[in-house]
Amino acid sequence: MAKKEEKKQEKPGYKTTEFIVCLVVLLLGALMQSGVVSDGGSVSKITGGAMEVLAALGYTWSRATVKLGAKDAKSE
């Protein structure tokens, strides 16, 4: 009975909070790199690029963890 309670249904990636947060950060980073949001020169462009990379890596890690957890639960 406890195993049934622990089992969670896996949502598609685009329906997760991580996806929405990642999308917002990617858009903000792109706006910073283009100079629309801030005119801080090369510092804002580097910061925007770093934000995009970290958001993409965080989302990828998050989804991989979910996928591996689901795969392990199915094998049991």
Description:
The chain has about 80 residues and is mainly α. The protein is built from 3 helices and no strands. Helix 2 (about 15-35) runs antiparallel to helix 3. The two termini are about 15 Å apart. About 5% of the residues are buried. The model has no long low-confidence stretch (mean pLDDT about 80).
Short description:
By secondary structure, the protein is mainly alpha-helical.
Keywords:
76 residues; 3 helices; mainly alpha
| Overall tally of structural domains | 1
Class from secondary-structure proportions:
mainly alpha
- Helix count equals 3
Largest sheet: none
Q: Characterize the overall form.
A: elongated
Low-pLDDT ranges: none
> For the residues shown, what is the average pLDDT?
80
Classify the beta-strand content into a percent band. Answer: under 5%
Q: How many strands appear in the DSSP assignment? A: 0
Percent of residues in helices: over 70%
List the helices and strands and how they pair.
Elements: H1 2-6, H2 17-34, H3 42-75
Helix pairs in contact: 2-3
